[in-house]
Amino acid sequence: xxxxxxxxxxxxxxxxxxFPRKVKGWFRxxxxxxxxxxxxxxxLTPWIRWDRGPELPDxxxxxxxxxxxxxxxxxxxxxxxxxxxxxxxxxxxxxxFLFTSAMGRVWCGYACPQTVWTDLFILVERxxxxxxxxxVRLWNAKWDLRKLRLRLTKWAxxxxxxxxxGGAWVFYFTDAPTLFxxxxxxxxxxxxxxxxGILTATTFFFGGIAREQVCIYACPWPRIxxxxxxxxxxxxxxxxxxxxxRKNSAEVKAGEPMGDCVDCMACVNVCPMGIDIRxxxxxxxITCGLCIDACDDVMDKLGKPRGLIDYLALKxxxxxxxxxxxxxxxxxxxxxxTILYTGLWSLVGLGLVFALxxxxxxxxxxxxVRNPTYVVNxxxxxxxxxxxxxxxxxxxxxxxxxxxxxxxxxxxxxEGSDGSLVIVPADDTLLLRVYVDAAAGxxxxxxxxxxxxxxxxDLNSSERAHTDTHFNGRSQ
Amino acid sequence: MAKQPEKKKDxxxxxHQWDGIEELNNPLPRWWVWIFYATIVWGIxxxxxxxxxxxxxxxxxxxxxxxxxxxxxxxxxxxxxxxAGLMDExxxxxxxxxxxxxxxxxxxxxxxxxxxxxxxxxxHGSGAAGGKGYPNLLDDDWLWGGSVEEIAYTVANGIRxxxxxxxxxxxxxxxxxxxxxxxxxxxxxxxxAISGQDADAALATAGETLFLDxxxxxxxxxxxxxxxxxxxxxxxxxxxYGGDEAALTESVTMARFGVMPAWSDEHRSAGGLxxxxxxxxxxxxxxxxxxx
Lengths: 476, 292
Hints:
The structure holds two protein chains of two kinds. By secondary structure, chain A is α+β, with helices and mostly antiparallel strands. Helix content of chain A is about 45%, strand content about 20%. Among the domains of chain B are: about 80-170 and about 270-285, Cytochrome Bc1 Complex, Chain D, domain 2; about 175-255, Cytochrome Bc1 Complex, Chain D, domain 2 (Orthogonal Bundle). In chain B, about 45% of the residues lie in helices and about 5% in strands. Chain B has eleven helices and two strands. Chain B has helices spanning about 10, 30-50, 70-90, 100-120, 120-125, 150-155, 180-195, 200-215, 215-220, 245-255, 275-285; strands at about 15-20, 20-25.
């Protein structure tokens, strides 16, 4: 193989392992709390019960693929109402825009599942193998029984977390208590086991091995976020005007004043992304705030003011350097851009809530049978046939009465039924063949087209719905 | 150490040149070459394992013996196996009570719809509205009876055919040989009068006696028809061959009768329907609006 000096550099870089040190502080506590809440929601939600009547599942949050229903507490979404899901996704998108333009990568730093699970995996790693220094030693140590024991313990704990992650996921798709028993005695559907297996493996890999590489190389969101941030965005920065020249650096000449940074590397050692925040804004930074906690701790010990590393806007950094007073945080957050995002977000949200409240409890679709357009009966009556689908979105079967609009001469009858009363089973759709008759010589029978309306009434609640359609007569 | 691109002097060029840009003749990556060889091996194995090589009569059947036709046949057999219970039930069911058995009725009506489209729609229309000479099955007028049992009898045995000894069979005489043209005109006027259409009152009155003498034995004194005879009701709004003067005159003069094949497989060597299929299509027709 030929090798010359003008060869382009290799495009591959092997991973530099990261060993985040333990840290205490305000942001670390906040992250623990958020982890507890988000994981709690994820693991416990499928176990919440919600009574919907005897015919419907009593699981509060359930994605029923086979029955094509989505249950969320008191809300039940049918397939034709999928626009609610689309609306929620739009809200999630706008919400991310809002939070990013106001507070940078706050989602990445605190709430992203990749961050939360990686945090949990690092916690387990620290319990098993010790803090940063012990972990670095273990990494460099030769394989012996102790290293094998520690590694196996850690991997086993990760695997259990992964299994619990995949295990909780499948509970969202079927009745959780039943599935739990079935999973234990081996009678659950193979798809449940396969899904759990895949999610266990991906959780183990993403949280235990890939970690920050997912954010740096795999996730598209950090690249989009670059476009969402501006000089007013609150992000994590290093006050270099205060810290530099840092102690012990080559730039410090004897007798000259030194900056506040003592180059203790605390901010670097706690960073889960393995970067040095003092190098400025970086693509890898997920703004988790752990370097702030680490640096504040050091500043407290040195008796210097906190905030050498801090949440600040890029605009403030410049202002402070020039000796001006920075703008209040609230003024950074409240600016036309974030107000616009909030407005759009609220608009979609209000629209969805409005749609949720006005959506009819009774759903009727009418399809006219046009082969043939009309039938002549022996007494000269003209008959039109309609396929009507009635949806009952309640947990119990309901009696419905069908009727035509007031003032019409036409009459209505239902195939297979003596009257116009039909009973639709719980949470089901009923297809009816409905006849509308116009007596010989009446206007509807002799005119090409007569508009009329089908009314359906819930006989228990008197709730009504209607659909407009038309009648074809025998025009001469 | 990462592999560096080979230099021109080592590998040469392909000889292609575009605006001074040359294409290096680098060897293929080894992983690519091995996958290439693997696909060749896979291809050979595939043509042995599965039907592949065309021969004179058919293709090689393949070592695994797989065929899409056999797979479809197995799928059809599986569906028939799954439906066997309902089909057996349907074959012996008391047809009048099936509509109250929701599950069986739904199965029969849906299956009957498919049978209807395949076997009946050629004459009666895909919407069962019929046409001139082919009865409309959606209305409340039935030549031979509109109960499920009567419909099933008609479907199984047909009308005026040589296949079934039990076929419904009557014939209307051609009155062109019996009545004069003038008399036929009077009868036609009478028929139009009793069906509520415009008619010459004098002719109609004259035609009444002729009607009672010649037509009433089958069509009834008031033209109410007779299902025993398959004689259409004449005092209503439904006309199988048309109710205007010309059509009625032709019907009386030349006589009319429709023919329908027997569909029961007892009466056919091929293309017949089983007892369950006859029941299904009868139940389908019965619920189209006119069933009695």
